[in-house]
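Appendix B, record 7
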Amino acid sequence: MRTKARIETFNDWAADRITAALSSMWCAYAFAGISLVSLPAVVASGDIVLIIAWLSQSFIQLVALSILAAGQDRAAAKVAAELHETHDTVMAEVGLIRDLVTELHELHPDTKPIK
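Structure tokens (predicted):
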């Protein structure tokens, strides 16, 4: 069982690192460079089918995936920041409400607190 946990830990670590690398703009730039290596030969062929195939299979699939993943990482970071801000605001409001309730109980000691 201990070996299984180690393997799962390693797999999680590897997946996190690989995902981070593939979802970066640097990876998109590298893939764009790799895909552009074959562009001159494809254009020189003059075959529209080959050009479209290169565009869809080489360029778009290699580059767009990394760009989309990088964009999704940025969007997730924005959502996380908004959630953190909302949480902080709500917790501040809860503190204010507690203060108001305490003040009301001090002004009206004959009332029972809500449980």
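Remarks on this record: Residues 2-107 form one domain. Helices lie at 2-22, 25-37, 39-45, 48-107.
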